Amino acid sequence: MIRMKKSMINLAVGLTMMVAGSSAWADIPKYVFFFLGDGMSSAQIQATEAYLTTINGGSATKAADLLKSENRLNMCKMPIQGMQTTYDAHALMTDSASAGTAFSCGIKTMSGVIGMDETMTIPYKSVAELAFEKGKKVGIVSSVSLDHATPASYYANVTNRGYMNKIATQLTETGYDFFGGGGLASPVGPARSGDTGNNIWNLLSTQGYSVVKDRDSMMALKSKPKEKVVCINPWLQDSAAMPYAIDRPNSNLSLKEMTEVAISCLKKGNSKRCNNGFFLMVEGGKIDWACHANDAMATIGDMIDFDEAVGAALDFYKKHPNDTLIVVTGDHETGGMSVGHATTGYSAYYDRILGQTNSFTYFGQNVWPAHKAAYSAGYNWSLSNNLESNSAMLNVMKSEFGLIWSELNAHQKEKLEDAYDKSMCGTNNNGSDENKLLYGGYEPIIVTITHILNENASIGWTSYSHTGVPVPVYAIGASSRIFSGFYDNTDIAKKLAKAMNIRQSLPVKK
Ligand SMILES: [Zn+2]
After folding, report:
1. Rounded distance from Cα 334 to ligand 1 centre (Å)
2. At residue 477, does pLDDT exceed 80?
């Protein structure tokens, strides 16, 4: 009997080992990456692959070219795919705060609320906090400010995402090992009424964090990692965010480099928690901002930057294939981006956007103000050819966007003339509803330039806000199979918790 029992045990152990050996993806991952493309859904992904196909010498209208490996994004090559809903408790179109709360805490809430329920009375723990309590190291990376809605969803509980000083105060109290990317939106005073007014730099220091702000010091962390470090990109272009990838000078870090620094700081070190692995959240936050502004080239640049950061995690995965899980998704679509446009039908011309050299933001900050100042005196909006007769502006449109006036149709010229009038002196022939539809609160001439440039390439936009389409999920590695299927965005948090063997069932009250 005893002998038989022993042989049965041996058989059971052998089978378990066989299963584990043949199916590493069912294992509990030690290292967990969650990549979040803000505003990223299928259109942003397909447009980026069409762009890559074009710049790599192929045609965005040929399947054989589109399918070549070098034209596919890293995320699209992952073996597991899923799809998630994006709506929140009271809106078909979520915002990043309620979406972040869904996939960090596992609950639906109201737009604008972070880490709390829809009554704004009960705070919940995020999957990052639960991983930290379980002894894992935790890192948060974002190309926008570290107190912005998505990163904040992993450590803060606030009734209003606009309380950015309160959010940053909570950041300093996390104990998390790494923060990196943009800076802080309101580090020395309240962001708005109702917010706290703490000096965050002092609080970070008190809590034992070191703040690193230059490229060489940050890159040095790859070989000499630190614990409790906050890495802030040298240039913060707008709202304490890293610059768009297409505007980035060499002295700045890419999202991939920031991710590599984070990986080093989380993987190595003296703390006992290094043995327990890590949870790292990386957000490509300005994909969303570029889509709000309907700028396809800025969107695609940040999509590639985000996907290259995914590549850094895949490099790590190749070294630790049995211990690593990588999940990539978006929180919602932004801009109602379409792959195809009414004016181009079934054709695509991605070569037509290649002449754009900088983002709408860079143009708005560095080129447009000087032009406006030089030509606004005595401007008469009632003339019909203000733009056509201004060779300086036509040259700027050509050099900055590759838009050639003589190649535009009459309707496009009329739209540009109206937008130019509106931008130069605040007045044009349009009614207010028409202006709202055409410009959405953005600088009329700039958003009209990107609209026309994008539609010529076959890229359309239907909104300046978020839209309600479901978003794809991609995964690879240990436990990745649980991310296949069509599920709710709150299930992302629950699946991540399950993958990390977190015993509490989400949502977990604080
Ligand atoms: Zn947004």
Report:
1. 6
2. yes
Each residue's pLDDT tens digit, 196-233: 999 999 999 999 999 999 999 999 999 999 999 999 99
Distance (Å) from CA 37 to ligand 1 centroid:
11
User: What does the alpha-carbon distance between residue 31 and residue 21 come to, in Å, rounded to a whole number?
Assistant: 18
209 Cα–ligand 1 center, Å:
30
Distance 478 CA to ligand 1 centre (A): 31
Query: Distance of CA 347 to CAs 5, 56, 60, 255, 339, Å?
Result: 70, 19, 9, 33, 10
> What is the set of domains in the chain, with CATH numbers?
26-337+465-504 (3.40.720.10), 350-457 (no CATH)
Distance 328 CA to ligand 1 centre (A): 18
> Among all chains, which residue has been given the structure tokens 């991710």?
259
Rounded CA-CA distance 476/35 in Å is: 12
Residue 19 in this model has a pLDDT that exceeds 70: no
Q: What is the pLDDT of residues 98-150, one digit of tens each?
A: 999 999 999 999 999 999 999 999 999 999 999 999 999 999 999 999 999 99
**C-alpha distances out from residue 305 to 129, 255, 258, 425, Å:** 27, 6, 11, 37
Please give the model's pTM, rounded to 2 decimal places.
0.94
